[in-house]
Amino acid sequence: MTTLLLAWAITTAQILLGLAMLCAMWRLLYGPRAQDRVLGLDTLYVNAMLILLTYGIQTGRTLYFESSLVIGILGFTSTVALSKFLMRGEVIE
Predict the structure, then answer these.
(1) Packing angle between helix 63-88 and helix 34-59, nearest 10 degrees?
(2) What is the pLDDT of residues 33-44, one digit of tens each?
(3) Residues 41 and 28: beta-carbon distance below 8 Å
(4) Which CATH number goes with the domain that contains 26?
């Protein structure tokens, strides 16, 4: 019973995260301002990271956990760089 419940919960989470990725992609492509597009990109990488984590739980392999950690670090760095660029017009002072 618990294995079936876990499989059902992981599958449901992956489907909902996929829908959230579609919404973030819409925001990234059709955002009226650059800030909306940065927010869409930020949400997109967080959702991709969570999909990899749920897939890692489903398969039981640790490779997906490490990949999601790399996506998280690179996504945070790119969000900070894009935000700084939008505020000041330059990334490095």
Answers:
(1) 170
(2) 989 999 999 999
(3) yes
(4) 1.10.287
Domain encompassing residue 15: 2-88
- Total number of domains constituting the chain: 1
Of 80, 81, 56, the residue nearest 68 (C-alpha): 56
Nearest one of 41, 38, 26 to 85, comparing CA atoms: 38
- Name residue 92's amino acid: I
Let me know: does 28 contact 37? Beta carbons within 8 Å.
yes
The pTM score is: 0.85
Residue 93 placed within a domain: no
Using the 8-state DSSP alphabet, how is residue 92 labeled?
-
Note whether 64 and 80 are within 8 A (CB): no
